[in-house]
Specification:
The complex is a heterodimer of chains A (178) and B (228).
Chain A (H helix, E strand, L loop, with lengths): L2 H19 L7 E3 L5 E4 L4 E9 L4 E3 L12 E5 L4 E7 L4 E5 L2 E9 L2 E10 L6 E11 L1 E2 L8 E12 L18
Chain B lengths: L30 H32 L18 E3 L5 E3 L7 E7 L4 H17 L4 E7 L5 H10 L6 E3 L2 H6 L8 E5 L5 E6 L4 H12 L19
Classes of the chains: A mainly beta (178), B alpha/beta (228).
Chain lengths: 178, 228
Amino acid sequence: MRRDQRNALGVFALLAATCFAQVPKAPSVSMAPVGAVTAQRTKQTTVELDFRVASGFHINSNTPKSEFLIPTSLKMDPPTDIVLGKIHYPAGKDLTFPFSPEEKLNVYSGDFTIKLAVHPLSSVVPGKYAMRGTLRYQACDNAQCFPPKTLPVNFDVKVVKEKSQGRRNPAQSPHVHN
Amino acid sequence: MSISEQPDDQGPEKPGTPDGNPDMNSPAAPVGRRSERNPLALVVVAMIAAAMLYFGFHMARRAGSEPSAFMGKSTVAPDFKLETLDGKDMRLSDLRGKAVLLNFWATWCGPCKIETPWLVELQKEYGAQGLQVIGVAMDDSGKDDIQKFAKDMGVNYPVLLGKEAVGEAYGGVPALPESFFIGRNGKIVERIIGLKGRGDIEDAIKKALNTESGSAPSTANADLPSPK
């Protein structure tokens, strides 16, 4: 195959891939890579997890307005002696469907951040630890809903020793030795 | 010479010049011809890409309302046997002679919650003319949740506990709600994907009611999924 033909074919394949990539068949939620997290032993460190809901879709917030709706929820399975603090979900946005303005939903769309506190106990050996979990969500667009899905949530935490308190010399006896 | 006229087999590739360009002395790649061919190739690629973009978006827009070729109009609705909330078995083929609105839904589906009261009203309005609405709950949650939802919504038609195999037989049902309107002869006359207006549902019901009851083809059960 000639070079110009190969180039044309390459451009064509790229455009075709772009074309089909722009027509999502199903909603998607993705997580941005988490930067380096360093957590000091015995201290609580907040980790921000950034998610993105694909354009045109929304997912229920953590507190949807109906008991039957599936809330977005994060579940983590931390290593032993790394305690998880409270998970802080953002407030959702109220949304109504065009056919039923009185039926209110509470949703996440676009970008949203879930904050998670990690607290390594004093027994944790300093080093890098893998945090594994899942985000469960259920997505809809303006007319239809898709079955619940789970997204893997993985990041590493580097546990370091607690900072030393600046040791003082023990108090000296005022007694003068001769 | 156009691109299509070039032979597929050019033989072993000729090495390029040291600056990375092809060998300009090669008879297979004369300078003059190359300068003419490149713009043409780019125009063709651009036209094909534009056509793909147009059809891609067009298909995506249509996907919410048009039946697929697989489960199009005049397809015999695949028969199935599912359990009702009362614990009894129900077969679609038991309803032959009636117009059936087969509504796939779930308790977690907001648009389904909006649509359900309409289905209740339409069952009341057209039931005497031979309409039977059937709800197929595609929930993973337990029977109790489905039962509570149906009770809260005042559902006046049978609700069946859905199985994935039945969804597969109806084209996968990747999103909810999705409704199939089945004529008295057992053939699908309309399909509505997603939440549409009450009027659209009513029009499709009328279409199903206006069908003649006839003997269904012998292959009606060919796609019968084996219950899981």
